[in-house]
Every structure is written in structure tokens, then in C-alpha cells.
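sry for the spam today, last one i promise. C-alpha cells for design, 118 residues
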């Protein structure tokens, strides 16, 4: 049994489609203007982003919350960043490390919530 940490990632419809194309096993490569991949440590923070930002600001007005497990051994080389309030904790994974990050996902990426804006 591998020790894992549960992480969350708020995504829009385009990113979710790419995750689906990987059979829910990987996150897509970052775009050139996205040098960091930001998985978050709790559902409340991911929900806030998906509901309050993605569903209002994305072109398609939808936000999803994904949940997934990553090996603790892999995560230990990164530090948790607090970027606001107590619940605003995330990892900053450089875009070039996303391949190894994806290889350390245990199981499938699950969609646990959907928020549709007006």
C-alpha cells in the first residue's frame, strides 16, 4: 500500500476534456503562459475557485472540482504554499515537472462537483 495525499484541482470544461482523454489518469501539459501547476489541498478552496471564478469568468461559464491521490514520496520535494487565508493552501509544481507528477497519481482523477454560472 502506497501512502498518498488527497489533492484537488478546480478546472474548466477544456481542461476536463483533456483529463477525460487521458482516461482520468493525467492532467494536461501547461500552456506557455502557465509555468506552474497548482493542485490545492482541500475541497473548500477548490470549490471556491470553481464556483466563484471558473463558473463566472471562463468563456463557457462552468467550473469543476477534481479530486485525486498523489504519492507522498513524490510530494515531499515540494512545500505547501499558503496564498491567502488558512484554507488557501496549494502546491506549486513547475510545468516541466507535470509528467512525473502525473506518473505519481494513484488511481483515477474524479470529478466531485460541477458549478454552472449564469
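last one done:
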Amino acid at each position: 500500500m502506497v501512502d498518498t495525499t488527497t489533492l484537488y484541482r478546480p478546472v474548466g470544461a477544456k481542461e476536463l476534456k483533456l483529463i477525460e482523454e487521458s482516461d482520468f489518469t493525467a492532467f494536461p501539459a501547461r500552456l506557455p503562459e502557465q509555468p506552474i501547476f497548482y493542485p490545492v489541498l482541500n475541497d473548500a478552496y477548490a470549490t471556491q475557485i470553481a464556483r466563484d471564478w471558473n463558473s463566472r469568468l471562463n468563456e463557457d461559464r462552468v467550473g469543476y472540482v477534481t479530486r485525486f491521490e498523489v504519492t507522498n514520496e513524490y510530494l515531499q520535494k515540494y512545500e505547501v504554499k499558503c496564498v491567502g487565508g488558512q484554507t488557501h493552501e496549494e502546491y506549486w509544481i513547475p510545468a516541466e515537472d507535470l509528467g512525473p507528477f502525473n506518473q505519481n497519481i494513484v488511481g483515477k482523477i474524479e470529478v466531485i462537483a460541477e458549478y454552472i454560472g449564469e
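The CA atoms of residues 79 and 91 lie 7 Å apart. ok im logging off now
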